[in-house]
Amino acid sequence: MLAPQAAPERSDGLNYAPVSRGVKHVVCRPGEFVFSAAHLDHGHIYGMTAALLEAGGTLRHVFDPSEKAVAAFLEKFPQARAASLDEILADSEVMLVASAAVNCLRGGIGVGIMRAGKDYFCDKPLFTTLDQAAAARAAVRETGRKYLGYFSERLHSECAVKAGELIREGRIGRPVQVIGLGPHRVNIPSRPAWFFDPDKFGGIICDLGSHQIEQFLYFTGAESARISASRVANYRHKRYPGFQDFGDAGLVADNGAVGYFRLDWLTPDALEAWGDGRTFILGTEGYIELRKYTDIGGSRQPDTLFLVNNKVNERMDLRGKTGYPFFGQLILDCLNRTEKAMTQEHIFLASELAVKAQAAAEIVEG
Asked: What is the pTM of this model?
């Protein structure tokens, strides 16, 4: 039996760039929030840019050392114009720079952008070392600018948006455990050389685990947490020494909630999505399951949520139902200098815990 065919944006996680199918959250007028894009090393820059545009932002420039990368970006976003990074930073109307550089360079680039007076919207992982994180924290204090993170597995998932609403409504009581599954398709031909260099990508937990840790903190309402255990391995990709295609970790939060997540680059070809990402949230009065990118036992569609509590046992199709409110909230935070979308401490905490879990990980095989 042939595997079902998927749209390219569902099968290729590298260039995953969802757009709202129904609800939109436009928060400003054209020209009110001007931003630019710089350093296009990861395809997530397309999702970041599209989301800011969808919320009302105005895209002005694009920069990358590669002319080919710039040309591809301009084909998707022709309203931008190619510019040097110095030109972007000198433009007083540009409020924010969105960036998806090589992982190990993101922190230093962000420090430079903030010192030039711009807010910085960075793809995850935000850092690959704690020294990079410390430098970014210092720059935030010194400049008053924002270092913002793109944790797409929650922020660009309608079922995850709905899960947050249900938890705030008390529909599952007090959240006490979060289990996150983050499988990804490696798609080797599309990956640049730096993707396999541990000094550059930072390790699987640092990279993919930052998604899972951010969700754990958000869904449980934790303000701090510690890593209880972590492991990494290279089971399948032996021709890339130092690469990791498996990782997992456990966490304990300051409020008593516990978490576990598993990551891998082992998604098989027949799956119609780039990964069968799932999140399980256990509460004292019920539980939620999120099937983010496919529902393999049912519709095969993304954004499926299951809610079970003392009153309901319900399946929800969230496609086109919630939109992606974070990006409009981010724009308003930049305009109003508030922290309603995501606090700076939450962003740094999620990223630093991922780096710590990576550094402490037991190497099982590889």
From this structure: 0.94
